[in-house]
């Protein structure tokens, strides 16, 4: 099946990228606490600029990574979300209901636990940090356990995508200051033009990508975080369903897809939408370059003299306890109220293991931490994210491997 092949390719690149992400973070921590620490921190602040006539834009190197390269990551997040809503796991109400309810629980409970320890002052601003899930790390850990049902992998993928959407909304609504309405209006005009191209049936990618450059700059100047331009641009990228989906019912899709692939393989490949082409082109760059670079520039924190405070403990509590508890509670409510159904071969034990894996916040958690804090509070948040993510990954792996080892059939998960 074409859709299954797309999903398997995504899962494979996410899993492998998770391991590279881990080593990039370790390297950053090592350098930040080594004799080369001064050079590491100086590298992050190297000014890099672009000047064309009267136009000039200059930022420290770390902000080019966080604002520009991460916009491509958010573009990929937007593409994945659009695909999942239209042709993936989230297009069926009952499957989407389970992932949505679990994701909402997995965002609300960690934020609540964080605020229990940091209800007032500057520390309260970090409530969004433990809401995030790092899909690359989570799938990478899951890949270490053989025989995990595909349904559980798809549930984690759908959960993390909904989680990413929640993080995008949190960034847009709560980590934005001083809007420039003029720049925002121009950004809306550029986005409107991209949507018009979609409406007119333009299937070349280059017009959308060219419009993405001024959209990114205008969002940057508007006061919103520049990375949100990636999500907005994804809304305009055309998604035309492969021929087997057109007019097929859910029951007919497997047979229709199989027949089409057997007899009209070339035609199906040609029918891949601009969204699918861009998504598959972006995946290797994001997984193997952009996210490791982000980890390298953001995971390094000098541990000498750092005192752990309520921010670090709040983040750790939210990720380690809040994530599995919230996801389990949200999934239970969806099942109890008939709003969702468990994937084939998946039981409540598998949901619990996914809950711990979702406690690996890392990339998005570090990203939000950088928006919420600076200085010592940022260092505390980073320590909380890194420590909790490591423990959550170990616990998730141990639970998943233990459940799988005791199971005589995959359905026992």
From TrEMBL:
Catalyzed reactions per annotation: Na(+)(in) + 2 H(+)(out) = Na(+)(out) + 2 H(+)(in)
Keyword Transmembrane helix assigned: yes
Name of the coding gene: nhaA
Superkingdom in the source lineage: Bacteria
InterPro entries: Na/H_antiporter_dom_sf (IPR023171), NhaA (IPR004670)
Keywords per UniProt: Antiport, Cell membrane, Ion transport, Membrane, Sodium, Sodium transport, Transmembrane, Transmembrane helix, Transport
Pfam families (alphabetical): Na_H_antiport_1 (PF06965)
TM helices/strands, residue ranges: 61-81, 93-115, 127-147, 154-175, 181-197, 226-242, 285-306, 312-339, 351-375, 381-400
PANTHER family registered for this protein in UniProt: NA(+)_H(+) ANTIPORTER NHAA, SODIUM ION/PROTON ANTIPORTER NHAA-RELATED
Principal subcellular localisation of the protein: membrane
HAMAP family assigned to the protein according to its UniProt record, in alphabetical order: NhaA
Record membrane topology: Multi-pass membrane protein
Name of this chain's protein: Na(+)/H(+) antiporter NhaA
Role this protein plays: Na(+)/H(+) antiporter that extrudes sodium in exchange for external protons.
Source species of the chain: Thermus aquaticus (strain ATCC BAA-2747 / Y51MC23)
Location within or outside the cell: Cell inner membrane; Cell membrane
UniProt family annotation: Belongs to the NhaA Na(+)/H(+) (TC 2.A.33) antiporter family.
């Amino acid at each position: 099946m074409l859709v299954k092949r797309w999903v398997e390719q995504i899962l494979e690149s996410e899993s492998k990228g998770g391991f590279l992400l881990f080593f990039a973070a370790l390297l950053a921590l090592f350098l930040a606490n080594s004799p080369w620490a001064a050079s590491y921190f100086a590298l992050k602040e190297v000014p890099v600029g672009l000047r064309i006539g009267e136009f000039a834009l200059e930022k420290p190197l770390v902000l080019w990574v966080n604002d520009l390269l991460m916009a491509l990551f958010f573009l990929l997040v937007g593409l994945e979300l659009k695909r999942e809503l239209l042709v993936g796991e989230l297009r069926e109400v009952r499957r989407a209901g389970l992932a949505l309810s679990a994701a909402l629980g997995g965002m609300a409970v960690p934020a609540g636990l964080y605020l229990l320890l940091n209800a007032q002052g500057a520390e309260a601003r970090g409530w969004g940090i433990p809401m995030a899930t790092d899909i690359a790390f989570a799938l990478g850990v899951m890949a270490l356990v053989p025989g995990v049902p595909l349904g559980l992998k798809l549930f984690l993928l759908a959960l993390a995508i909904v989680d990413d959407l929640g993080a995008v909304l949190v960034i847009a609504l709560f980590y934005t200051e001083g809007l420039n309405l003029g720049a925002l209006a121009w950004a809306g005009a550029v986005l409107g033009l991209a949507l018009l191209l979609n409406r007119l049936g333009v299937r070349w990618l280059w017009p959308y990508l060219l419009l993405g450059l001024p959209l990114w700059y205008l969002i940057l100047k508007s006061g919103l975080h520049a990375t949100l331009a990636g999500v907005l641009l994804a809304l305009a990228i055309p998604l035309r369903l492969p021929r087997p989906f057109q007019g097929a019912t859910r029951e007919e899709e497997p047979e229709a897809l199989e027949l089409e692939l057997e007899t009209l393989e070339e035609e199906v490949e040609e029918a891949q939408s601009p969204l699918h082409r861009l998504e598959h082109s972006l995946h290797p760059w994001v997984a193997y370059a952009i996210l490791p670079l982000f980890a390298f520039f953001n995971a390094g924190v000098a541990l000498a003299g750092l005192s752990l405070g309520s921010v670090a403990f709040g983040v750790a509590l939210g990720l380690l306890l809040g994530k599995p508890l919230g996801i389990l509670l949200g999934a239970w409510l969806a099942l109890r109220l008939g709003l969702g159904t468990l994937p084939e071969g998946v039981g409540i034990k598998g949901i619990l293991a996914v809950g711990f894996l979702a406690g690996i916040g890392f990339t998005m958690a570090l990203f939000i931490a950088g928006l919420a804090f600076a200085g010592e509070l940022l260092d505390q948040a980073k320590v909380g994210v890194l420590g909790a993510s490591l423990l959550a990954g170990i616990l998730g792996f141990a639970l998943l491997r233990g459940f799988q080892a005791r199971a005589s059939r995959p359905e026992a998960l």
